[in-house]
Protein: Bet v I/Major latex protein domain-containing protein
Amino acid sequence: MFGTLSEESEVKVPASKAWDLFGTLELGKVVTGKLVEAIDVVEGDGGTGTILKLTLKPGLGFSWYSEKFTKVDNENRVKEAEVVEGGFLDFGFTLYRVRFEIKENPNDDTGSSCLVKLTLEYEVKEEVAAANASLVSNAPLVGIMSVAKEHLLKSG
Structure:
């Protein structure tokens, strides 16, 4: 069973400034302590192939997972990260990918705002789909977007 969820929001900063946060390891620093307990860089410098270990706050269903940046496209402002160990993979998921896309706002001629789109793609084995597909929620996407938006507006 394959599924997808997404959230899009306008942020009142230029696309380049939003990408400086979403396209780098900086986003991890911003969400640490708010959405996750800790994020450790296992390998890499923030580019494609970087592996992070995320330690989650208690009560989220699992305590940790590792993700790998499978795409960091600075030109098109797209970053993808896939869970490679722990977390959803322990619950029968064969894919759990988050994509960040930063786009110029087509309704803003001044370039002072952008659109941030977060997409979650997942695939879960059929035999556990009914039981575990309900674990997928766009609440983490909304949380990331909210914390990031607040940070970007404050750092103005």
